Amino acid sequence: MPTSDQNPSMPNRLRLSVVRDTAIVVSLVVLGLYAGSAFLIPLTMALLINVLIIALSDRVIALTKAPVWLANLAGVTVVLVGLFMIMYILGNQATQFARSINTYESQFDEAVNRINDLVGNDITAFIRDNLVNIDMSFVARMLLGSATSLLNQFFLISLYVAFLMAERLAFRKKIRMAAGDPKTGAEFALVLDAISFSLQRYVGVKTFISLITAGISYVVFKTLGLEYSETWAVLTFALNFIPSIGSIIAVLFPAAIALVQFESIGPFLIIVFGCGTLQFMIGNFLDPAMLGRSLNMSTFLVILALMFWTTVWGLIGAFLSVPLTVCILIIFSHIPALRPIAILMSLNGELGDEGPPSGNTV
Predict the structure, then answer these.
(1) Cα–Cα distance measured from residue 48 to residue 52, given in angstroms and rounded to the nearest whole number
(2) What is its main location (predicted)?
(3) Dihedral of the alpha carbons of 137, 142, 148, 150, in degrees to the nearest 10
């Protein structure tokens, strides 16, 4: 009888211990992410860049039948040169923008007055009360600090990428050797192949879509004669990795500069409606069509991920929030024990289970 009285309490104690252990592990992970940000941010960027390089080199092999070493070299060169140019443009023009920020602040009142007749006094008062009070010098310093930090870390990121590419093929062999059992090693290698393929597809397609958006936006900016066109194009590219809010910010900043720079309202309207329509069309039609179910994430999860990674890693975390969360979702979806969590993270419970083409390797 005492035994039967004690048995019902065992599952409860077990559940409580699981909850306790899970809370401890999650707390340690979050603390580790925050405390180790200086080390983890360059490493995370290197891993995502490595995935992009592999996707590009595989595409080169498929199109040209080039040797693997030549395709890898081409992928490394294109991606790292492009990354360096992006960081150089941001660092250089952010410095110029920070130096001239006082000029823009003094001209903003005049710009608000120019649109008074167009939108009415109520909206003008709202713009004056909310936008004029924004500390633009703080924004400029924050962007300048982030761009300079990335430029300073470029060598470290390049070093990580070089070693990751050097161990790409050896890694599969080490996995099979570490597994001990050949069957277990082969199954684990197949899971890695599926994860690698999904990540390559997401990062590659998202980068391609962002390049299209940034390229068209740059043509518009340059045609209008907008100052710092290169910077706004680069920010458009980066901000497109942040869903919904990123595309809004990508239109808002250049539109505000156009409002201040030009005496007429025309360039401002062209950027707002032209680039805004472009962002809407790509975000709602081209993006889902090319990504398919790779970004089948809950909308609440997207906002939650944005807030979490921004809190932990700052502005860089905002840019990396969705790619990192998508990576986690994809990895969880290919691990049977974690697949229920991936289903909860998804929008409708459906996961893209597409695997790698035959012969694809990590």
Answers:
(1) 6
(2) membrane
(3) -160
Q: What is the pLDDT along the chain (362 residues), one digit of tens a residue?
A: 455 455 555 555 556 777 777 788 888 988 888 888 888 888 888 888 888 888 888 888 888 888 888 888 888 888 888 888 877 777 677 666 666 666 666 666 666 666 655 555 555 555 555 555 555 555 555 655 655 666 677 788 888 888 888 777 777 777 777 767 777 777 777 777 777 777 777 777 888 888 999 999 999 999 988 888 888 888 888 888 876 677 888 888 888 888 778 877 888 889 988 888 888 888 777 777 776 545 567 777 878 888 888 888 887 888 788 778 877 887 787 777 788 888 888 777 666 555 555 444 44
- Asked, for residue 288, whether it belongs to a domain, the answer is yes
Tell me how crowded residue 175 is: count the other CB atoms within 10 A of its CB: 16
Does 297 reside within a domain?
yes
Write down the pTM of the prediction. 0.71
The count of domains in the chain is: 1
Q: What domain range includes position 326?
A: 40-345
Backbone angle region of 52, left / alpha / beta, with phi > 0 → left and psi within -120 to 50 → alpha: alpha
Whether the CB-CB separation of 147 and 95 falls below 8 Å is answered with: no
């024990």: which residue's tokens? Answer: 337
Paired tokens of 274: 């032209």
In a domain, 276, yes or no: yes
Query: Is 299 buried (19+), middle (13-18) or exposed (0-12) by CB count in 10 A?
Result: exposed
| DSSP code per residue over 214-279 | HHHHHHHHHHHT-TTHHHHHHHHHHHTTSTTHHHHHHHHHHHHHHHHH-SSSHHHHIIIIIIHHHH
Residue 346 sits at φ, ψ, to 5 deg, of -80, 170
Q: Angle at the Cα of 327 (from 323 to 330), degrees rounded to 5?
A: 135
Three-state secondary structure of 274-306? HHHHHHHHHHHHHHHHHHCCCCCECHHHHHHHH
Structural domain contains residue 44: yes
Residue 217 contacts residue 250 (beta carbons within 8 Å)? yes
